[in-house]
């Protein structure tokens, strides 16, 4: 750790904010980066800097880091190696998608569905866990549930596991593999599956903003020709793994709701609902597998 004078920090902050404006990057990212590196709160940064501030490295290294934001368009969360998500601060690296604010709503929908369908104590799976955000959100919200988290990327799983350990969620079991494959021992037993799968059509990847296109993992983004490859697989395979009246809950992209609803209808799901995110976009699909004949009276 290195002590840097308040004056030097203030000067650096001002220049960085000016650069951000020129490059059309939110200037608030400068403070966000400083806060995550120093632990200072927003008010101290703006109004009342202490005489000297402890940085994890020299000011010139902070400047090198910031230039990666400006020049290479590296997302600020990768520079800080952390991202706020729900009540957590999650470790992130370029091996994982930066967890998005809209995905936070997936947990609220999961909680509502768990309560209304009496699934709070069952076995839940987060498919394509990335940073572990959804699995951790579920573990926090459902203290009596067992949580399984799957990812095909070993590097992502290592980050997810580190996040779960740091936040003391030892109820999450992590599995390496393709979607349901590692969950074979739980066939017919899952109460719910939740997923934010890759859903961007391949041809659209080239048009994404450089922060996403150049730095976030392709594996987390590419949903195949129509963007629905992973969602289709999850819809077709889930009934083998879910128990009767099990919950299927996924995130999707704008414009996919009608196709996802039709897919779910074709495969016999019931109580299909589409939910919007805070921007009003049809973003989430919820459905239930049919109850087994023996459960229906
Ligand atoms: C859109 S990211 C979601 C990450 C995290 N759940 C979130 O919401 O921030 C999709 C994740 O699915 C994983 N993935 C892609 N293909 C997969 C597959 N065939 N089996 C399991 N996971 C897969 C990726 O590695 C990535 O972590």
Keyphrases for this structure?
binds S-adenosylmethionine; 21% strand; elongated; two-stranded antiparallel ribbon; Rossmann fold; 2 domains; 297 residues; 7-stranded mixed β-sheet; alpha/beta
> Which ligands appear in the coordinates?
S-adenosylmethionine
Please identify the structural class as seen in this structure. alpha/beta
> Total number of helical segments?
12
Overall mean confidence score, pLDDT: 95
Largest sheet: 7 strands, mixed
Per the CATH scheme, the topology name of the largest domain is: Rossmann fold
In order across it, which strands form the biggest sheet?
7-6-5-8-9-11-10
| Amino- and carboxy-terminal Cα gap | 67 Å
Full CATH superfamily name of the largest domain: Vaccinia Virus protein VP39
Order of helices and strands: EHHHEHHEEHEHEHEEHHHEHEE
Low-pLDDT windows of residues: none
CATH architecture of the largest domain: 3-Layer(aba) Sandwich
Got a strand count? 11
Number of domains: 2
**Helical content class:** 40-55%
Question: What gross morphology would you assign?
Answer: elongated
The Cα radius of gyration reads 21 Å
CATH hierarchy class name of the largest domain: Alpha Beta
Note the beta-strand portion. Answer: 15-25%
């Amino acid at each position: 750790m290195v002590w840097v004078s308040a004056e030097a920090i203030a000067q650096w902050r001002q220049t960085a904010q000016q650069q951000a404006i020129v490059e059309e990057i939110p200037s608030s990212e400068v403070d966000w980066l400083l806060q995550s590196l120093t632990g200072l709160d927003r008010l101290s940064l703006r109004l009342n800097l202490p005489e000297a501030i402890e940085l994890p490295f020299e000011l010139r290294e902070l400047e090198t880091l910031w230039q990666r934001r400006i020049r290479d368009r590296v997302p600020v969360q990768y520079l800080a190696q952390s991202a706020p998500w729900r009540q957590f601060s999650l470790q992130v690296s370029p091996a994982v998608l930066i967890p998005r604010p809209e995905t936070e709503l997936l947990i609220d929908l999961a909680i509502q569905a768990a309560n209304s369908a009496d699934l709070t104590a069952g076995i839940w799976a987060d498919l394509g866990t990335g940073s572990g955000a959804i699995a951790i959100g579920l573990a926090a919200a459902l203290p009596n549930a067992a949580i399984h988290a799957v990812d095909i990327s070993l590097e992502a799983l290592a980050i997810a596991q580190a996040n779960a350990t740091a936040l003391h969620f030892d109820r999450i079991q992590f599995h390496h593999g393709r979607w349901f494959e590692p969950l074979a021992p739980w066939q017919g037993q899952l109460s719910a599956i939740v997923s934010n799968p890759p859903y961007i059509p391949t041809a659209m990847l080239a048009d994404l903003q450089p922060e996403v296109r150049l730095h976030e993992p392709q594996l987390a983004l590419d949903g195949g020709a129509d963007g629905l490859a992973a969602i289709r697989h999850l819809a077709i395979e889930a009934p083998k793994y879910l128990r009767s009246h099990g919950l299927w809950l996924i995130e999707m992209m704008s414009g996919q709701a009608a196709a996802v609803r039709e897919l779910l209808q074709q495969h016999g799901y019931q109580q299909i609902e589409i939910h919007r995110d805070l921007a009003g976009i049809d973003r989430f699909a919820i459905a239930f597998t049919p109850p087994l004949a023996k459960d229906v009276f």
